[in-house]
Amino acid sequence: MVNCTRDMLLTELKAIQHLVTLTVARVNDLSITTRLPVEVLTHVFSILAECDPPSPEPLKGDRSGDKAHLGWITATHVCRRWRHVALSAPALWTNIGAPQTGPWMDEMLARSKQVPFTLSACITRDHKVCDAVLKAVSANYMSRMKDLHLEDIEEGSLDDRRLEVLANLKHPAPMLESLTLDDVTKSKILRPHIFARKMPRLHRFIIRECDGVHWGAPYLRNVTDLELDIGEPFSLAKLLAVLKESPLLENLRIIRGAVSPRERPLPRGNVSLFSLKTFSLHSCVDTPCVEFLDNLTIPPTARKEFEFKAENAEVAPRIISLATSFVKTAGIASRPAPSKMQFNRMDSGRCDIAMLVWLEENDADVRPQLSLRWTSVSNYPAADNIAAGQLLDSFDVRKLTDLSITAEGFRYALYDTFHNAFSKMSAVRDLTLKGRGIDLFLGILEITHTVAPDPHSRQMSTARSAFLFPNLERLRITSVPLGKAKPASRYVSWAPHLGESLLSMLETRKALGEPVPTLVITLCDDCEALLPKLSEHVENLQCDTCSDA
Q: Domain F-box spans what residues (predicted)?
């Protein structure tokens, strides 16, 4: 009798719960959000999908790390109608691979229906992800894949699955526009006949951390974006032949990890890439590299990023001349005139010089038009001086207004080159000094030098003494210990008192009638005690985020 009564009450409770659910649903149907048209909801979801996409990273705050960051997908949990609207819009489910779990990837493949989709996956993470990737590259789905990004950047034991995925890139890909293989091929050279050689819409090809490519493969030709990161020696002559067949190339990035065996001189005849917008070359410096640059013709407006490693000083003038697009004329007026320049000199036991040049005044907030890094792998000091001198002499710096110097080393022989260059920068208004190695730069600012009379001036003039940077309006000191400093590295046995050097320079310039108008101190340790003394010698002192060491 008791059990019968209990069962009857449970049945009534379920009926009440069902009635409550129906009532809540009717209330929700009357809310403002529920009355939004389907078109508006779909548009909102599409914006959310861009602003807050799902991520392969675990959900923030989840200690176990098992929950994925769903991003905009959590909006589909608000109510049944929102979920129905989202599921009826297959374009919302085309970013497959985030969250990166096998079940989610399978589900999003199904939800994307017949809409072109993007697949991103680390193929050594787990077997379920590999299974989802194999499903996506099968004949049933490959026909509508738009972008494919595979990577193997995590340590894993699924190397056989990686080879299985590569072997299954065999079906035609008529919609494929972008292909990225990040450390996937390893010692295997990517086959030339992937996707049955049928990739008519492919315009972006990126392969990183590989040992080589088939230079006759169709995926290298007629693209607009090409990135090759090859660790083993390869023929630059074959690369030039590929570039010659890609006249519409807009973005080119070459990482050459090893010196090529001595090959015959590259064939003469320039390869013109008139559509190129960005050009990046990271390479060891040898004769083929010099000849490769000499055979390229690119627009002067293209952004250039170079990173060179060299073992001798003799090659510096030629390679830097090519990299900086230095016009081979004697007149200084023919050289590019930057408006802003950053020069970084690091001290890590070898010469590491980085240079950034802005050739447009309104371009200071984006990437510079020229970025060049020079690393000398030898201990030959002349290589440092030649490289630095050639870099600075490649430009007409008479109109330079913004100069930034970062220095961590104390090799004084190198700074003679800087003193000569500074004497030509009379238009500099904004100077930034950063790092523990700026002591000598402060010393250069403190001394006067002889200014020769202007031969073009109609007025009679004689040689006179003056400070460098006569038009200086603002000096920025950043990331510098202004108290008693410790050695910066094991290569330096002492460190100067940069606060005293700065104060001495300001006192001298003010005493001789050319004070620094504005001094800005940022991220400098132990600066509070020095601020009152510094303020006596400048018109305007600004100090931001100073801290105690």
A: 35-96
Distance CA 505, CA 498 (A): 11
* d(C-alpha 167, C-alpha 34), whole Å: 49
Residue 488 binned pLDDT confidence (cut-offs 50, 70, 90) = very low
Kindly state the DSSP code that residue 339 receives in the 8-state scheme: S
Report yes or no: 279 and 250 within 8 Å, Cβ to Cβ: no
Note the pTM of the prediction, 2 decimals.
0.79
* Higher pLDDT among residues 457 and 512, named by residue: 512
Helix/strand/coil percent split, the chain, to 5: 35, 25, 40
**How many whole angstroms separate alpha carbon 293 and alpha carbon 320?**
10
Q: What is the pLDDT of residues 127-160, one digit of tens each?
A: 888 899 999 999 999 999 999 999 886 655 677 8
Q: Is the pLDDT of residue 173 over 90?
A: yes
Evaluate whether 174 touches 144 at the Cβ level (below 8 Å): no
CB 523 within 8 A of CB 545: yes
| Contact yes or no for 441/412 (Cβ under 8 A) | no
Q: Are 87 and 111 in contact (CB under 8 A)?
A: yes
Sequence ranges of the domains in the chain: 429-452+464-549
3-class DSSP string for 93-129: HCEECCCCCHHHHHHHHHHCCCCCEEEEEECCCCHHH
CA-CA-CA-CA torsion sign (25, 26, 29, 30) = negative
**What pLDDT score was predicted for residue 136?**
93
DSSP classification of residue 547: B
Which of 281-285, 320-324, 456-460, 481-485 bottoms out in mean pLDDT, i.e. has the lowest?
A: 456-460
Q: Pick the closest to residue 406 from 352, 344, 333 (CA basis).
A: 344
Look at residue 327 and give its three-state secondary structure: coil
Q: Which of 49, 69, 47 is nearest to 57 (CA)?
A: 69
**DSSP assignment of 266-303:** PPSS-EE-TT--EEEEEEE--HHHHHHHHTEE--TTSE
Q: Are strands 271-272 and 251-256 parallel, antiparallel or unpaired?
A: unpaired
Q: What's the DSSP call for residue 264?
A: P
